[in-house]
Amino acid sequence: MSEQTTLTTEVRTQFGKGFARRLRAAHKIPAVLYGHGTEPVHLALPGHETLLLVRHANAIVELDIEGTKQLALVKDVQRDPVRQVIEHVDLVVLRKGEKVTVDVPVVVTGEPFAGTIANLDAMTLSIEVEATHIPEHLEVDVEGREDGTHITAAEVKLPEGATLVADPETLVVAISTPQLDTTSDAEAEAPAADEAASEEAAE
Questions:
Q1: pLDDT in tens, 52-102
Q2: Are both 19 and 35 inside the same structural domain?
Q3: Do 112 and 143 belong to one domain?
Q4: Where a domain ends, among 79, 94, 109?
Q5: Given 3-state DSSP classes, what are the helix, strand and coil percentages for the chain, each rounded to the nearest 5?
């Protein structure tokens, strides 16, 4: 299930890159909260706690906005492409019992048949699930699966109450036998053959 925590936030009324830089220098992160037809609320989040929060995919957070509690889903995290510093966070308003559509990471478990490997083709799958019951990941068991096995999205076990949004025919995992690279052997044999031919000619 997705991680849930509480963040004490501040409403911000100043905007622009300069203000955002000053905010981050004070170890705070600019954010916006929106959804359900409400007016967007611009917030300043505590830096360290937010950094820990967004390490989890589809994190749920309870916001304390000047004494008012609001449940929200971390929808998007914008980072500096070079320094990987969090520049901005998008939060979506949640209601109790509400279902949301999210992309959930796929994890392969088990060992396929000896001599084969499991190739993960779909890193995430889109599902609809109750907001407070978002799984951290979806497991695909490949134990004993043989070469040529294809596991599609329709075969992935979902949490109770969740429904698949992704195309059911999406290839998630394929089992295959690694192909041996004979190029190096052939290249190694060629000089040896040339050397043998040269020796015969010399005789």
A1: 999 888 999 999 999 999 999 999 999 988 888 889 999 999 988 899 999
A2: yes
A3: yes
A4: 94
A5: 20, 45, 35
